[in-house]
Design a protein that fits this description.
The structure is a homodimer. Chain A is mostly helical. Chain A has one domain: Winged helix-like DNA-binding domain superfamily/Winged helix DNA-binding domain (Arc Repressor Mutant, subunit A), CATH 1.10.10.10. Chain A contains five helices and two strands; from the N terminus they run H-H-H-H-E-E-H. In chain A, strands 1-2 form a two-stranded antiparallel ribbon. In chain A, strand 1 and strand 2 form a beta hairpin. The longest helix of chain A has 20 residues. The first copy, chain A, is globular and about 50 Å long. Chains A and B meet through helix 1, helix 2, strand 2 and helix 5 of A and helix 1, helix 2, strand 2 and helix 5 of B. Chain A binds a DNA duplex through helix 4.
Chain lengths: ~110, ~110
DNA sequence: TAATAATATTGCAATATTACGATAAACAAA
DNA sequence: TTTGTTTATCGTAATATTGCAATATTATTA
């Protein structure tokens, strides 16, 4: 035990969970927000922007990349990271869909 | 080490991370989707809808509730769970805001 | 009251995450 | 080539999560 039983859920459910999980840490939320703020990929100073050691930041970046939330390209001895708008769109659409469904129905409880 | 350094991030960043983390597991995504589908709070059969044992489901429900994504009321010997629309709205707004910011700026990289 | 039904809690094993020091790798510049 | 800069990886300790059997709790019903 201890491992998530991904095989018992739908691909879509797993996809949303993966994206959400990646954002399930304040450091990774902060990284996303910083990438939006600077609006460029030459982000060689992410480490200085976060209250974490360099290896930890590197690890968080890796997780964001694995989840598909950011894209990274090697650029000289610096790395060029930026947000993958596609992933943000997926999340936006998902919650919009939920919102619509919730609003459509008169909820008669709680 | 091993514990998230929440104190070094903003309240808002932690709030988003908490909500996202709660959805960072396919079982909890499935629970949310089931609650939307049935559109009622008399949800005494959630356990039967999931490929997990009863204690595990109960634990996931607890986490969703702690994160504020669902509300629960005791109703006889059953529990009445339903989605907290407020939380969904928070997430929707957050990603909408990001989307707007990304679109506003012509991205010149990646 | 006793039996039944539904959900919660406890306890524990397996696994995953978080964080960072040490070190490696890759490149630019001296 | 050596030095400095930047990011990645390794190794490891601390902590958290996942999952479930066993058990407890709570309320309904017989």
């Amino acid at each position: 035990m201890g491992a998530t039983k991904t095989e018992n859920f739908t691909t879509k459910q797993n996809a949303i969970a993966t994206l959400a999980k990646a954002l399930g840490h304040p450091a990774r939320v902060a990284i996303m927000e910083y990438l939006i703020k600077v609006n460029t990929c030459i982000c060689g100073d992410i480490v200085n922007e976060l209250p974490l050691a360099q290896p930890t930041v590197s690890q968080h970046l890796k997780e964001l990349k694995n989840a598909g939330l950011i894209k990274g390209n090697i650029e000289g001895n610096a790395i060029c990271y930026c947000i993958d708008e596609n992933a943000v769109t997926k999340l936006l659409n998902y919650f919009a869909q939920i919102s619509i469904k919730l609003e459509k129905k008169k909820r008669n409880c709680c």
